[in-house]
Amino acid sequence: MAVNWGVLGVASIGVRAVMPAIQRARNARLVAVASRTAARAREAADALGIPRAHGSYEALLEDPEIDAVYIPLPNTLHRAWTLRCAAAGKHVLCEKPLSVSAADCEEMIAGCRQHGVVLMEAFMYRFHPRTERVLQLIGAGDLGEIQLVRAAFTFQAREPRTNIRFRPDLGGGALYDVGCYAVNIARAVLGEPQEVFAYGRVGRYGVDEVVGGLLRFETGRLAAIDCSLTVPRREEYEVVGSEGRLVVPHAFLPGAADAEIHLTRGAERTVITLPGADQYQRMVEHFGDAVSGGPLSLPPTDAVGNLRVLAALHTSLRTGAPEAVAR
Hints:
The protein contains 9 helices and 15 strands. Strands 14-13-12-11-7-10-9-8-15 form a 9-stranded mixed beta sheet. The protein has a 6-stranded parallel beta sheet with strand order 3-2-1-4-5-6, with helices on both faces. It is of the alpha/beta class and 327 residues long. Helix 4 runs parallel beside helix 5 (102-114), helix 5 runs antiparallel to helix 9 (301-319) and helix 7 packs across helix 9. It has 2 domains: 3-123, NAD(P)-binding Rossmann-like Domain (Rossmann fold); 125-324, Dihydrodipicolinate Reductase, domain 2 (2-Layer Sandwich). It has helices at 12-24, 38-48, 57-61, 78-87, 102-114, 129-139, 174-190, 279-291, 301-319; strands at residues 3-8, 28-34, 52-54, 68-71, 91-94, 119-121, 146-156, 195-202, 208-216, 222-228, 230-241, 245-249, 259-265, 268-274, 323-324.
């Protein structure tokens, strides 16, 4: 069954990546896009060949043909519009982070459950075959007992005066924007951390621009993460076990190129190459299958765990002291 999609907003990530992925997906039809002005909605619709353009978000939610909505709005708007989508009977794929607090996220989950709609966080890298292969290797014990995860995602954001990433009122900052990826892969490998410590820099616009953090897990296992909006691009993670380690380059945005895993065990070094894949398309297709009754491999409760860690890192950054992760 094909899912009919609408999109709230014409954010760059939607126009460049997710809307084209919906159009390519085997089980999806992109039927409408909305913006706060009719002109912007029509411009995006014409550029991408989308049948309908709505001049308000409310109009899109009233569209009876739409089954599911993709939300690429600023972080602080995710909660309100997810709840409004749910009340309108629309399934929701929402950009990461799912909200700006675990409490908001739990409210979103409850609202979607109440109205019988599917909710998922748009962590596209989790649907790449390479990520799936990494977690299979770890689960099979190929690296032995995992001791350490190191993850980094940094880049230089443009035009900070007009970039929403530098707006604290819209949920900006490096931790929410790219640190969430590093936290997510650490949790996928190691589970839920008990305590964190963060150190970094809050810049002139009032958001965290550079952050380094340590996450402490049971039995002394550790994750070291760093993220930034102001230093050159780096995106990779390393998983270290008692019997070996693996490194994943271009970890979160590999594009359509073949993707590598660099595996080291003793003196043996292996490069595992997986064929290129469209992780956005795979995410949309998985979500569509879930809407049709299939399993959801990334439940929204995972977003709650990620936000609890991000909240602890924000608190530690502010206080300069270790912070326990809420349960």
